[in-house]
C-alpha cells in the first residue's frame, strides 16, 4: 500500500469499536513528506471530540513551552506528521484517567507509517511510546541520549501531561539542558 492508502485506512479504522464502547475516531495529521514525525501514546478525550491533535493542556505545554513554536508551524502538514500508538482515544478508566493505549493499532499501522513517511526527525512522546519503539532501553536514558529510527535522529520526550509532575521534579536537567537541545534540533529541521 502507498502512503495515501494507509492514511485512508487508518482514518476509517474501527477495529476497537467493541473494545471502547464508543465510536473510535482515528487521529493522524500530516503528509508523507512532513519533516518531523511525532509519535505519542494516544489522543486525549479533547482531541477525540475536536479531531485536532494536541489541542489540550499537554499540547499547549509541548508546542509553546517545550518546542516554542506556534500552532501555524505545528499544524502545517509539511512540518509535522502526528501519529500515536493508538490512533484513537482509548476511553477512561475507573479512576477517571485515560486507559492505556491498546497496542493493536500500533502493531497494525505504525510500522507502515514509519516506512512510508519521508521525515527527517522523529519525536517520541511518553514512556509507553518509547517502550514500544525501544523495548530494551531505559526511558530516562532514552530521554537524555541521541537515538535513531530508520537511520534518522529520534528524540524521546516524557509526556507533557500535568500528571507527570514528579518525573520533571526528579529530572531537573530535562528542562535546563535537554529542552534547549530539542528546540535546536527542531528549529534546524524546520528551516
From TrEMBL:
Pfam families: UDG. Gene3D superfamilies: Uracil-DNA glycosylase-like domain. Residues 27-183 form the Uracil-DNA glycosylase-like domain. This is Uracil-DNA glycosylase.
Amino acid at each position: 500500500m502507498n502512503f495515501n492508502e494507509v492514511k485512508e485506512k487508518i482514518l476509517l479504522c474501527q477495529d476497537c469499536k467493541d473494545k471502547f464502547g464508543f465510536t473510535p475516531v482515528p487521529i493522524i495529521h500530516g503528509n508523507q513528506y512532513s519533516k518531523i514525525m511525532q509519535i505519542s501514546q494516544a489522543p486525549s478525550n479533547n482531541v477525540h471530540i475536536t479531531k485536532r491533535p494536541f489541542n489540550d493542556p499537554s499540547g499547549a505545554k509541548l508546542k509553546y513551552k517545550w518546542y516554542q513554536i506556534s500552532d501555524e508551524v505545528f499544524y502545517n502538514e509539511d512540518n509535522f506528521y502526528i501519529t500515536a500508538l493508538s490512533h484513537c482515544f482509548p476511553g477512561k478508566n475507573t479512576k477517571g484517567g485515560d486507559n492505556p493505549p491498546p497496542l493493536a493499532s500500533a502493531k497494525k499501522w505504525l510500522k507502515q507509517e514509519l516506512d512510508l513517511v519521508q521525515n527527517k526527525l522523529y519525536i517520541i512522546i511518553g514512556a509507553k511510546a518509547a517502550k514500544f519503539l525501544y523495548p530494551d532501553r531505559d526511558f530516562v536514558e532514552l530521554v537524555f541520549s541521541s537515538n535513531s529510527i530508520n537511520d534518522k535522529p529520534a528524540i524521546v520526550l516524557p509526556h507533557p501531561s500535568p500528571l507527570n509532575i514528579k518525573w520533571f521534579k526528579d529530572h531537573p536537567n530535562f528542562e535546563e539542558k535537554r529542552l534547549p537541545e530539542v528546540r535546536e534540533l527542531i528549529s534546524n529541521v524546520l528551516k
